[in-house]
Structure formats: structure tokens, C-alpha cells
Amino acid sequence: MSIKVNDKFWERYFKLIRDEMIPYQWNVLHDQENITIDKERDDENIPSEKSHAIQNLKIAAGLAEGDHYGWLFQDSDVYKWLEAASNSYAIHPDEKLLSMMDEVISLIEAAQDEDGYISTYYQINNPKLKFRRLFESHELYCAGHLIEAAVAHYKATGSERLITVSNQFVQCIKNHFGDEEGKINGADGHQEIELALVKLYEVTKDESLLELSAYFLEVRGQDPDFYKKQLEENIENGLSQGPVPTINNEYHQSHKPVMEQEEAVGHAVRLVYMAAAMADVAYYLNNEKMYEACKKIWKNIVTKRMYITGGIGSTVHGEAFTYDYDLPNDTMYCETCASIGMMFFAKNMLKHETDASYSDILERCLYNTVISGVALDGKHFFYVNPLEVQPEACQKDPGKSHVKATRPSWFGCACCPPNIARTLTSLDQYIYSSNEDSVFAHLFMDNEGEINLDKGTVAIRQETTMPYSGNVRFYLELDNINKMRLGIRIPSWAEDFQIIKDGKEVEGKLDRGYLYLEISKRQTVIDVHFEMKAIQWASHPLVRGNQGKVALQRGPFVYCLEEEDNGENLHLNSITNQQVTEKPVEDSALGDIVLLETIGQKEKITKEWNERLYQKYATKEVEQTQLTFIPYYTWANRSSGQMQVWVNKKE
Amino acid sequence: MSIKVNDKFWERYFKLIRDEMIPYQWNVLHDQENITIDKERDDENIPSEKSHAIQNLKIAAGLAEGDHYGWLFQDSDVYKWLEAASNSYAIHPDEKLLSMMDEVISLIEAAQDEDGYISTYYQINNPKLKFRRLFESHELYCAGHLIEAAVAHYKATGSERLITVSNQFVQCIKNHFGDEEGKINGADGHQEIELALVKLYEVTKDESLLELSAYFLEVRGQDPDFYKKQLEENIENGLSQGPVPTINNEYHQSHKPVMEQEEAVGHAVRLVYMAAAMADVAYYLNNEKMYEACKKIWKNIVTKRMYITGGIGSTVHGEAFTYDYDLPNDTMYCETCASIGMMFFAKNMLKHETDASYSDILERCLYNTVISGVALDGKHFFYVNPLEVQPEACQKDPGKSHVKATRPSWFGCACCPPNIARTLTSLDQYIYSSNEDSVFAHLFMDNEGEINLDKGTVAIRQETTMPYSGNVRFYLELDNINKMRLGIRIPSWAEDFQIIKDGKEVEGKLDRGYLYLEISKRQTVIDVHFEMKAIQWASHPLVRGNQGKVALQRGPFVYCLEEEDNGENLHLNSITNQQVTEKPVEDSALGDIVLLETIGQKEKITKEWNERLYQKYATKEVEQTQLTFIPYYTWANRSSGQMQVWVNKKE
């Protein structure tokens, strides 16, 4: 499959990534950007003076002197940058970027140990503890990001340099891990290598990579004391001192074997990275039981533990899931990386079954929490994506120190910024999937390319008015085949739709959210119209924070109120039964967007409340007010102020 | 003033304290009670294996060997027990209790250093750092509790043993603290000695104690770097190692001079202990400026930062205030000790001005958050007094680990249990105040005693149906005086009232919430009837969590819904315009209480919600339901379940 996205909405991001994010992040990783690095939450232990990521590699390579600085997983920032740069290069080749990448690759080659190992923290500070503190070491996590960068770079440039580095590291890992006597029989505390190995398999076809991935997935949680025992052994062997910290196995999903996990628990990014890998391994190894396990986790997330914005992770404590229907809007985590992980998970589930319940969520994550993670200037980022913000609370309630009212320039833990860049530049991989005789269209944006089916190729092109309105035209041209099926996802936000093929409206029953068309002419044009109106969503009654409230959505975008448009005290507003109207604007700050407007009500703070906190109940005084909603991803791009997704609904 | 409380409602507590709490707490302090000690929140550093408080004193006294165990302020648990025991002895003399107290007093005498110093942590573990880590050492905090115990013990028994110990410690403190060259020019990180010194002054009339208290109040915040400098000096002098921790001065109200503080910030208990001392010192030293500062802090709390239950402290982080109108119901702190401190503050403000805004709050704290702190069995305690509880959240949301759904037996930090005991046994001190020719009746309960006015004495007796209904009869008998004034507080919960004196209804205008009667006969009987009906309170519109909700109150009691009476998912209930009826019951578990009942509505969780988290908004289905409210202080005395104070109001 080879697809090129040439969509107005998304090309703005590609250009932003190319012109702003990649050079900016390069400078940050080289400690050459004059910025303040924010702690992702109020915690003294977060290293936030500088990135030092390139410098760590230089020190490990013997090209510089000094100590390691930053998190144990600082290397992964470089690998994710490299992956984003490679993807961007594929979209828009550029000699300067190629040489920037080559410089980094040389550094990685130089930093790699003879035996294939790379992890600058352990190489510089603690070589004796390599692979011996897996609960937190992130060595295989970083290996995974190295491998993903290698695959992306190989696909973009044809260069095998990083593939070679990766293969050597994989060999090192194979030498150390496994259920044979004398090897380490466990997995990294942060899942990532599991999904990377499958990507490496996809280009090298080395099946031992799939087996290694399956091994890491299956060994997890088999011995819930694995991490603790490693630490105890280090103390016994004089490699480190006690005491052994309390290890919360749910945090890294090692509390029980993955096949037995039916709920999404622990650190949200780890969970979805793991689940994405499980779905992929299950697909390639035809492991039905593992796919069943994936379905249970998927269902638990999307029916009990996911925000309307596609955000996951209800608490900052462990950046974690909590329990069913616990979705607070103002203390949540909703990490950008976690929604990116949900996209991976959805994409891999679609390999098994074409079901809109996967692709709807994929779209929901992408158009809301994922792109909310980056400012429209490309240089400021959200780690946490709240659904309700009061700037005063972010400053004065220590329990909300992780909730930022504006996007910081960078973070002590900088996982999100390069993750956004690498994901958006690989968007071409999310639009379609295919099997022997069918193409499935999951996302709608201008694009063109070719998709190989069993017996031939189909050239496909979309021309759309998405995401502004719901018109999509498909051009199909068959090559060497006489017929195929095209499955078109009917989005959950489309209350109605029309599909016209050969001048005739196509009737048909939806199959798990897709409408299927038989294509048998060499050239076919299909016109699709999705009704794109403002929808008011309500939450399950057990979601306490959303009781009596609705959230607006139009097309793929969830909307929100911002103080800049609606004045202070957003929580006093109510949506009434007045019509919600659409207003396309070219906003100087927010770009081309469609505003949603309605006449609502706002509760008045009457004089009787002066110097009173409580008084006897009386009917409230309200006044009419104009409510203006903007797409969620555009919030916090103007002045700092309140924001709210869920708004009171006056029945 | 000498008052004896002989009230049915309160005598149950006195008996509980005498028969259960004091012996139980004695056993716990001696590590002789077989209980599990809970951490007050999920924090590995909380010492919770045992109390060890008596053992620490034995070790300091040289009567046992070993290390100190527990918090730096573990000694204060013993002093507060001693104060409670003394107060209880005054109510109900008992030889066995006297000898238990004597044993502890002997231990304290033995533990005291030659120079008067006592603080077992520093005596045992770190003598070189005495008075050198004031930001957290609690040495003067413990001294304060020692002094309060001494005063109570002296008043109850006439014994001066602990007064002597206290005087020696005070002398030690005077030797070390002050603005003279060479002395430590600062105050303890936890206010307490400031109010204790005034109590010692009240019995000894030693005015230097008032000056010392005023000194500690006024030096606070003069140099915001005081605590940091102490730590830096220790490092310079080789007494301890770095690094110096970050010190949050607002936490202990040392961010600016107390006279300039206009908002209640930081650790709630510290703030109210400080404010209570300020009010007292301002009263005795006639310091108008200090009283003005108290009024600002009072006003900020009661008009912006106090829960309807009299709870204060909106966050577990630093057990602290946050910002105006930030009163979340499910993550708050509302520490029992903080509401006890509000009672101290209110009591001392009443010395300046007889204003029902003080005594209403006093009553609100006492009848709600303070007695909610102890189970009806006297052996289980709340540190944190939530307004909304879901047991699942307490277990699975780490941000709510401090919120307990049932009262634990004891806490790692055990400040609250003995604080409740000492406060309730001193209730006689809160009912009345007086000046030269007037008596002011603030609280209503059966009691009798004598109050000295300038020219004579009045014998006073209350016979009441409180807190069950609003009838209060006062018997007054003047001795050596011809006339006096009686001010009767008209509670904010009484929508109407009647006062009959000499068979005639008294008319009159309220003066700051009090009705004044001129008494000129030797014997006078006054009948008061307060209308005691269920009131529905609403919150200021800026209190986000209470929007669209009401809380019920009847008489002094705030009410709540419990799952045991109302089924699960309390948040789905709404109060409608149906009448709220009263139902007195003798409940086997909850004692004599008046239930409030009404026909409300409950939102149904319809089948459409199966396996769905969001769906398009539709009018909700509701069903009629019986709602049964119990007084807040009785919650969590039956099965573990949900609880809710603020309930949806259907307009």
C-alpha cells in the first residue's frame, strides 16, 4: 500500500512538522533552544533543566565527557525525533534533513556497545545494572523506539544503517532474554519493544521477531514478583543497595498474564502499547486467544474508561486508569501519548475485523486529543489534555499541578512532542486497510495512492471537503483485476448519509458500521455525503461529572467553550433547546474552523450572594447568553482562560 | 464560670469518652491494643506499625532502650490524651483514671531534660538538632499540647505537677527564643504553643506568657527565609547534610507577617490554631490591629472556603486551603482537627464581639464535622470528613486514598482521636460567655452552673429538647446583683422563634444574631422556642461541585444520604418540591435521631446504556423514589457504602 495525503487540513500539520517541529525539537534535543522546560507535574524529582538527549549519546559514544542527565528513557526522544524526521522526509524529501538524520544515526552507531546494547543511562552511569532493573529501566522501551525509527528511516530512505543497529540490539536482547536457564525470563516495565518487533518483522520478514514479541507479551505477569526478585538479586549480588521499593504490578500490567486481563488498568500508555502489540502479534501468528484478550481490553476502555475526546487515563497518579465510569473532567490525565497508543491499538484491531467501533475511536483520538497535544504554532505541547480547565485551579490546587492551562514549550518527560510528530507524519498508514479482494476506507481526507490486492492493484483517490463538511469523492481504477469491494466507514457522527455510484444511490445494510460496494468497472467514481450536523452527546449516568451535561460534536471534532469567547465562569452556562448553528470562519488565531453557536442561558450571581457562601435555596436567576464553541483541538491557542467540554443542558 | 453539662445527647459522648475512648486510647498509646493502624493517606513514609508514644517517653526518660518511632510530634498524642483524661475527670472523678494520669505525668517528668526541654524524637535521635529544624520539628507544638494538658489537669485536680513541668519548658523556650542577639528569632512550623501560652496565662496570670505568645505570632513570616536559613546553618555547622528541601512557606503561614494575611492559606489546622491564638492574644493585649487581622481571616474562611459541614481544607496536598469557592466534595480534606480549631477560633472571637456569625459556625463545626470524626462506638475515627463518598473511588483512585469510606481504628498520624476527646470534654467552656453585666448563651443543651459578673453571680440552668427539637428553658437566679442582660443566640437555622419571659412574649430586634433580655428579678424563667424545620441550603454559584444541588439541615445537623437507606448510585437522586418530613426514630445503630424523608426522583439507567458510554442526548427517564436522610455525624456507622451531602435539586 502506498498512499500520499494531500489534504488541506493535514498538509498544514505536515508543513508545521517539517518547518517548525522537527527543527525545533532538533534544537531542544541538542540543548540549543532557549526555552523553559516544564515539569509535567509538581514533583521535585522531574529532571527539567535541559534535554541533554544528544549529549547523553555523545558521552556514551566516548565523544564527550560527563554524566547522563534526564530520565532513564531520554534516548527515546531522539529515536522518536528520528522516526518523525524519516516520515517527514518520505512526505517531502529534503537534503538538509537527510544530513541531520545521518548525523544522529552516526552518533547512535558510535554509542552502540560491541554486543549491540544501547541505553545511555546504563552505559554511562551504571553498566553493571544493564537489564537488571527492568521495572523502571526502559532499556527495551528505548530499543523499541530505536527499531521503529529504523523501520521508518529504511522505508523513507532505503538506508539500512539503523536496521543494522537494530538487528544487533535485537541479537543482544535475544542473548539475554528468554525462558532458557541463565537468561532473564521477563519483560520491560514499559511495553514498546513488543510492537516495534512486529514492525521490524514487516520489513525483514524475520519470523523470530514475531516470536520474540510474543514471548515478551506472554511472559508478562506470569511471575508477578519478577521485578521485585530482580531488585532483590541485585542487593544479594552487591550491585545495589536496599530497600527494595514497593512495586505496583498493575502499573505496568504485570499483575497477571496478559491473556487473563479483562480490564484496562495501570499506566495508560503502557496498556495501549501492550494491547496494540497483542493485536498485531495475534494477527500475524493467528492467535485467536490473544485477539479475544484484546477485544476484552478494547471493550472495557471504550465502553467504560474513555473520554469523549478519545482521552484515556483518569488519574495523574501513575498516569493511569482507575475504575469503570470514573472520568473526572478536571483531574484526568488523558495523555497525548495514550491517545496515540489508542490509534495504534485501533489500527491493529482493524487488521482482524473491519468494524467501525475501532475506526470511529481511531478518528476520535486523532482529531481531538492527539492534535490537541500540539499548539497551532507547532512549538508548544500538551502532555495532559483536560476536558475542563480553570487556570486558577492549575496554580492553586496542587492536585491539579499536572493540568496546564496553556501548552508548555517542552517537558521534563518529553515523550509527547516527538510522538505527535511521528504519528501525524505516518497518517497515510491509517486511512485504509485491505485484504485479498477488498479495500476498507476508515478515514476521510484528500489522498491518493495504490493498494495491492491479491490479484492486482487498485489506484485510489479521495477528494473531500472533510473535516469541514461531509463530502467525499472516491476515484478507483483497477489494474489487473476485474472486481473488488470497497468498504466505506459510515461515521457514528453522521446521522444520515448518501452514496452515489454511477449516478445511482447505493442502498445497502451496514455491516459493522461499513457500507460495501462491489466495484467491477475499470474506473469508478463514488460520491459520498455524510450529514455533518452538531450532535449533543450525553454520558452514561454513572459518569458523575457529566450528569446533566452534554458535549457537542460536529464531524470528527468534539467542541468546547473557551473563556475568550464566552466570558468567565463557563460552568454557569447551559445549553437550552435553541438551535445550534454552524459558522465557518477563517480565524486569525485558530485557522479555518467551523464555530458552533447557540443561544443559551447563564446563571447570574446575584447581589444576595455577596459575602455569603450558603443561603436558603431559591430558584436561580438566569439570563440569555450567546454561546460560541470551538473545536477542542484549537483550545488554548489564544489567551489563558477557562475551557469546558461538557456543558450543562437545560431540559 | 463553672458549668456542668447534663445533656442527654452530650452525656452519651462523655460516657463514651470515659468508658471507651480514654481506656482505648491509653492502650493504643501503650501499644497494647490489637488493631490495624491506617495510614491517613497512601504514602509509604507514614509510620503506621504502632503508636510507640509512651515507649518514646520511656526511652527519653532512660527507663527503656531503643529508637524513637513515629512522627516527630508523637509526644503530642500523649499530651492530648492527658488533657482529655483531665477534662473527663472533671466531669466524672475516678480514682483509676487519676492514677493512670499520674503514671503518665511521672513519665513526662522523668523524660524532661535538666534545662526543661522535652521532645522525645530529638532527645533520643538527634539532640544536636534541638530547635534547629523548626519548619518541621513540632517541638513547640508539642510544648503547647503539654501546656494545655497541664492547664486542664490543674483545673481538674488542683495538681501543679504538670504546671511545673510546663513552666520549666517555657523557661527553656524563653532562653532559646527571642529577638535578642544569639537567640532563635522565629516560631515553630506548626502553631499551637501560641494558644497554649494564653491558657497558661489564664491560670497563672503570668503576663510574660502573653508576650511570648504575641512574640511567636508576630515573628512569623517576618523573614520568609527563616526556616531555610536554619537548615543551611545546620549544613554549614556540620550538623546535617544537604540538600535543603524546598520549603513552602504558605504551608505554615510564614509567607508574610500574620497581620498582613487576609486569606486562609496553607495547612488548615495550623491556620486556625494560629488565628485562634491571634484572637486570644488580641483580646488580652487589647490589640485592635490583630483583631482586625483575625476578622479578615475569619471572613475569608466562612464566606469563601468552608464546607456546609464546618469542614475546612480543600485538598489533601498539604492538608490545605486552596482558593476561593474551591470546595470539592469528594477530594477535600476537612480534617476533624481543623474543625476543632475553627471552634477554638470562634470561641476566641466571641470574646471580642458577641456575634452569631461566630457562634453559628461554632455550632456548625461541633455538631457536624467534629463529631463525625468519631464513630458511635468511640473506637473508630475519621481524619478526613468527606461530603461525598464512593467506596470504590477510595480504593481505586489514588487521588482519594485519604478519603476513607469507614472510620479506621487509628492513624499513623493520630492527631484527631485525642483531639476529639479533649474538645468534647471541654464543651462546658463553649456554651456561654460573659462580660461585666451580661451573659451570652451561644449553644443550647441541658446544663447548669454559675457565671460571675462584675457585681455578683448568676446561677443559670438550661433544660432543652435540643438537638431534637427547638425548646430551651432558661432558669436564672441572681445573687448579689439586681439586674443583668441575657443574650440568646437565634440560630441561623431557626426560621422563626418565640421567647416568653414572665408569661409574655419578648419582642425585640436582633443585635448581630442575638436577642437581649433585661433580667431584673431574682428568679426568672425564660422559654425559648426555635422553629426547627428542614432547610434546603444552596451554595454560591462559584462552588462548582454544588451547582444545581441542595444540602438539608435541621437544627444544628447537616444531613446526608447513605447507600444503606437509599440504594446505590446516590448521585442519580434528586430532591423535588415534595415536602420533607421529619421522623424521629430510636435506631439500633444510629441512636436517637430524627430522619428526614421526602419523595424524590431517581434517574434510571435504561437498557440503551448497555455497553455504551456516550449516546445522543435524550430526555432522561426518572422514577419516584423515597429519600431518607440521616444526620451527617451518624454516617458510616453501618455498612460501608456511598454517602452524599449535596443532592441534586429538581427545579
Automatic annotation (TrEMBL), chains A, B:
SUPFAM superfamilies the record matches: Six-hairpin glycosidases (SSF48208)
InterPro entries: 6-hairpin_glycosidase_sf, Beta-AFase-like, Beta-AFase-like_GH127_C, Beta-AFase-like_GH127_cat, Beta-AFase-like_GH127_middle
UniProt keyword annotation of Hydrolase present: yes
Keyword line: Hydrolase
Domain annotation Non-reducing end beta-L-arabinofuranosidase-like GH127 catalytic: ranges: 3-428
Residues of the Non-reducing end beta-L-arabinofuranosidase-like GH127 middle domain: 439-532
Non-reducing end beta-L-arabinofuranosidase-like GH127 C-terminal domain segment(s): 538-648
Pfam families: Beta-AFase-like_GH127_cat, Glyco_hydro127C, Glyco_hydro127M
Molecular function (Gene Ontology), one example: hydrolase activity
GO BP terms in the entry: carbohydrate metabolic process
Protein's name in the database: Glycoside hydrolase family 127 protein
